[in-house]
Structures are given as C-alpha cells and as structure tokens.
Amino acid sequence: MEVKIMNTPKTRPIPILMYHSISNEASPAFKPYTVAPEMFEKHLAYLSQHDYCALTVTQLAAILAKPVPAAELPPRPIVLTFDDGFEDFYTCAWPALQRFKLPATLYVVAGGVGGTSTWLKREGESRRRMLSWDQLAELCAGGIECGGHSLTHPQLDLLPASRASREIIDCKLMLEEKLGRKIYSFAYPHGYHTRSIQRMVREAGYSSACAVKYAMSATNDDIWGLSRLFVSNQVDEQRLGQLLTGQNNPLIGPVKRWLAPAWRLKRRLASNN
C-alpha cells in the first residue's frame, strides 16, 4: 500500500511593526516612541520597493485561524500597527499610508479621544493631542482598522480583575458606539498581560490581541498575544531591513519574558507608592 505524504508549508514569519507617534516633536523621555514623518515615509518606501503586502491585524487573525495558515499568506506579509491614537496619525501617518496604498491597524485609548495623553505625565507628554471622534471616523471610513487599547491606558495586569475587565469592555463599547462599527482587535497597554487578562479580552468579544515581545510573529503565534517589533526613533531604512528579516537580537524577547514576573512585582510595588 502506497502512503502519500502531504507536503505542507512550514511555519512562516510575519513581521508586525509597532509604531506610536509620527512626529518631530517629543520630550526626551518620549523620543524613542516617535518616528519622524520623513523617516516614516522612507519606511513605507522600503516596504513598497521590497514588495511587502500589508494586512490589518484582523485580516491576519483570520488567516491564522485557517487549517494551514502558511499557505494562505501573501509572499511577503507585513502588518503595520499604531498604538494610542495620537492626532499625528491623522496629520502625518495617514497621508503617507494613503500615498503608498497601505492599510494599518490603529489601537485607540478610547477614553483619551478628543483629549490629551494624560497617562504620559511621567514622560512629560500629558498634553500630546489625541485624535478627535470625527478624525477617527474619517480614518475608519478610509480603510484604517480601529482596535481597542483600553479606556485609560493602565497596566492591566496590576489592576483588580473587575477594573481590568471594565477597561477592556468599556473601551470596546465606547468605540463601537461612537464609530458605529464592530471592534475586533485589542492591544495590551504597555504590552503587559497575563492569561487572566487574555481571557477577559476573549470574553469581551474581541477576536485577537497584540502584545509586544520584541519578536517576529509567525503562523504558529498565539492569537491572543501576537508578537510585535517595536519601531523606535533609531530605526532607519537599514535597521528596518534588519528587523524585517529577523536580525534583531534573538535574546531580547526570551529574556524579557523570563524576567516578566520580577518586573511585574517591581511595577506593582512602584504603583503602590
């Protein structure tokens, strides 16, 4: 009897880039989280020149749910994500994305819409302007995916369960009510989460969630803790190419995960002071 062996594709890497602010202005403490508009334009040009195919997080999540996700991906997949919902996404990032015809997923702190980034007081950025509801609605109508990023940007894993749950649920409810559309994806503020927090996100009705992990995602990644690559102000075109081909330090992600319990304790003690 002849035994047929099915040739299935191997696990494939998927870079999910994590941006915050696209701006030339930032306090020294917040500078690493900003990318100059001129450099961001060069990033997008690099992606275009190297034939990357951009997906939203929800599009990627749908592919990862398939029996053989590696076979469903485009040749060079990439996902562009932006955390927080700063106004400069509308004024700087979106025009560039439109020029290159690239989709993106924008994770919004729902309680900050129309106001300022009050959670960035320690970084000296508590007055950084956030998107308005009208701007956010225009972005969604223009093809940008909006995801949840909590109500007030707390460290969810340090909150009592009831408060953490409300941050996750109320964020989704507010965005859906104001925008008139379903919200499918979530990004953990600061990247911090636990299995319990993941369960809250699932039970709130989201279909995927992004963490940080400083690592490449892949077709076998955890859909409730998708790995992302942090794009800092030090990432030029050469460094971007290294990130996209997995040439970042392979120890960063594992070491950070190994230290997570101790770091969580330190954060908890600091929050009580």
Task: Walk me through the structure.
The protein is α/β, with parallel strands linked by helices and 273 residues long. It has one domain: TIM Barrel. The protein is 38% helix and 16% strand. It contains nine helices and twelve strands. Strands 2, 5, 6, 7, 8, 9, 10 and 12 form an eight-stranded parallel sheet that branches. A two-stranded antiparallel ribbon has the order 1-11. Strands 3-4 form a two-stranded parallel sheet. Strand 9 (185-187), helix 7 (195-203) and strand 10 (208-213) form a beta-alpha-beta unit. The longest helix has 20 residues, at 252-271.
SSE layout:
Blueprint: E1 13-14, E2 16-19, E3 21-22, E4 34-35, H1 37-49, E5 53-55, H2 57-64, H3 69-72, E6 77-84, H4 87-99, E7 105-108, H5 133-141, E8 145-148, H6 161-179, E9 185-187, H7 195-203, E10 208-213, E11 217-218, E12 226-230, H8 237-244, H9 252-271
Parallel strand pairs: 2-6, 2-12, 3-4, 5-6, 6-7, 7-8, 9-10, 10-12
Antiparallel strand pairs: 1-11
User: How many domain units?
Assistant: 1
What's the overall geometry? globular
Main sheet record: 8 strands, parallel
CATH fold name, please? TIM Barrel
- The residue-averaged pLDDT reads 90
- How far is it from the N-terminal to the C-terminal residue, by CA? 72 Å
Going by CATH, the architecture would be Alpha-Beta Barrel
pLDDT under 50 segments (min length 5)?
1-8, 249-256, 258-270
Helix-strand sequence: EEEEHEHHEHEHEHEHEEEHH
Instruction: State the helix count.
Output: 9
Q: Determine Rg (CA atoms, Å).
A: 19 Å
Give the full name of the CATH homologous superfamily.
Glycoside hydrolase/deacetylase
